[in-house]
Amino acid sequence: MIASSVSDPYAIPTGTTMRETGSDSVQLIYDTPIVGWQGKRVNTLRLWKAEPLDPIRLEVFNAGDHLGAMEDKNRAEALSRVLYPADETPAGQELRLRQEYFFSSASLQDILRRHLQQYDDLSNLADKVAVQLNDTHPAISVAELMRLLMDVHHMPFDTAWEITKKTFAYTNHTLLPEALESWPVPLLERMLPRHMQIIFEINAKVLKEARTQGFGDGDIADMSLIDEGGERRVRMGNLAFVGAHSVNGVSGLHTELMKKTVFRPFHQLYPLRINNKTNGITPRRWLAQANPEFYALAHEVVGDGLLGDLDTMTALDSVAEDAAFQQRFRAIKRANKARMADEIKAQLGLSVS
Prior knowledge:
three-stranded antiparallel β-sheet; about 15% strand; 15 helices; 11 strands; alpha/beta; five-stranded mixed β-sheet
């Protein structure tokens, strides 16, 4: 949901818990070492699990309500049991929002804690920390970082807002407005009232800026963090966009369409914010393991450097027009398609070309 990078000589040992005052659950940390290519670097994958403060309500259990005594445990553990639970029902929506907030808040609290262990204050947070929002699922992080900076670390709104924007970047994955996540305003007001206050304040600031720049009512309505058409809903894509200093698409075409469709007025207000980051592949897993026939062909031209540096594939330009290479390349593609057709037939009983 949320990807971050921060220098961390003070990593919390596996099994350590963190919790915020007033919370009914603890955030249990699991650190997994991820060894880099050829073992020169080791990164840490930090995962979170929710557990109740009190695993069993003993007085309820002794009263005979054995299932009710486990209610807090089940409620807490549901947060991290299934990622992205279905949200077609009100209960599913509440669980989904609780889960997104849990992971976002846990990560941000951890980032701030670690930052303050190395530095005296948070004024240089954006110089040392980068947080990438992967689509809209962790967009509540924008309001959560604002809350932490203002309410916990006592920063004024404008200072917190500048730090927040410089810290976050946002990757968009869809151009369809209806596919961008949104939450009913009453649900947010009930579950995260302080965050709803902050979102309203951010919205007022952004729309005031847009009106000052001469935007009309139609564009103002599209840029608003609150969708006023029918049931009032918070547009998480808009929140992620205004709360980030960089917004990227995942292909050149996607990025250009972002500027013309779903984020058109935002692009006009912030013309330097949208940029492109084309989705790539990992040479060792996607190429060498998933497509070994093509890897072997490319290796003949490129050599061993291909495993560690995908840029070496540019050496294939020298044989791109070679008829023999083209014939071998097409044969590999056809063989892969044939294997896929056989797999579909075996698994699903369907015959495809």
